[in-house]
Design a protein that fits this description.
The chain is α/β, with parallel strands linked by helices. Helices cover 32% and strands 26% of the residues. An 8-stranded mixed beta sheet has the order 1-2-4-3-5-6-7-8, with helices on both faces. It is globular. It starts with a strand and ends in a 5-residue tail after the last helix.
């Protein structure tokens, strides 16, 4: 499916305008909207290629700049020590309530978009994996794919480093897919067990994958990129969204 990737919008939130990047099919129609959450580096080229991959399956994909309160529109942090330090500083500076109000504002805006069908999903990697999980707490989000979500097991996302993400697991009503690399130092085995035990206890509709991969194994062009796992992960993602958003036979 042919797509376009040249659209942006500045969406109003309670904490200021938030730049959003859109990828969507070129043909006319209304499509399920996928909120795509980036790593700590914001909307990098690998993130935009992920968005294109998903949009090409028939979705309206929206990538927000998660640090819009602290960086100017269009800011992309570099994949180096300085960019990593800045990204990590900001994820512990921004209040968790602001991450959530961004999600609500983006969903509200997308509901009025002429290419949106009114159905919503989420996808995220690293920091974005946690934010995709937070999006799943919103009742309008039907399915969320969360890849190597950082700070979830330790409950340390946001200002004060005391988030309530796992504590609110019973609020998730849609399908949740979580994918982890077994060699990920950010979310070790014990942390993954904390997350899975809590989700099982809460009765979440859960799809769980642990693979022989490292943190950020989806980021193409990086040393940790695993092309085979990338294709497998996109297959899982496509199946998750298809079963939630494609019409079922009568």
């Amino acid at each position: 499916m042919l797509i376009r990737t040249d659209e942006t919008a500045d969406v109003g939130t309670p904490t200021g305008k938030m730049r959003v990047y859109l990828s969507r099919p070129t043909r006319e129609g209304r499509f399920p909207a996928i909120l795509l959450f980036s790593e700590i580096y914001q909307v990098t080229q690998p993130i935009r290629r992920l968005a294109a991959m998903i949009a090409g399956q028939g979705y309206l994909v929206a990538i927000p700049e998660v640090y819009h309160e602290y960086e100017p529109p269009g800011c992309v942090l570099s994949y180096d020590n300085a960019g990593t330090d800045r990204g990590n500083d900001l994820k512990y500076l921004k209040p968790i309530a602001s991450f959530d109000s961004d999600n609500v504002a983006l969903i509200d805006w997308l509901e009025e978009h002429p290419a949106c069908s009114g159905a919503f999903g989420a996808f995220g990697v690293c920091l974005g994996g946690h934010l995709s999980y937070r999006a799943a707490l919103q009742p309008r989000v039907q399915a969320a794919a969360c890849f190597y979500a950082t700070d979830l097991h330790s409950a340390t996302l946001g200002a004060g480093q005391a988030d309530d993400s796992l504590a609110r697991a019973t609020e998730i009503r849609g399908d949740l897919m979580m994918v982890w690399g077994q060699s990920d130092p950010h979310v070790p085995y014990a942390g993954r067990r904390v997350i899975r035990d809590r989700l099982e206890e809460a009765g979440v509709k859960l799809e769980w994958h642990e693979v022989d991969g490292q943190h950020a194994f989806l980021r193409d062009g990086a040393p940790r990129f695993d092309a085979a796992l990338f294709l497998q992960a996109m297959s899982w993602t496509n199946a998750l969204f298809q079963r939630n958003f494609l019409p079922r036979p009568a």
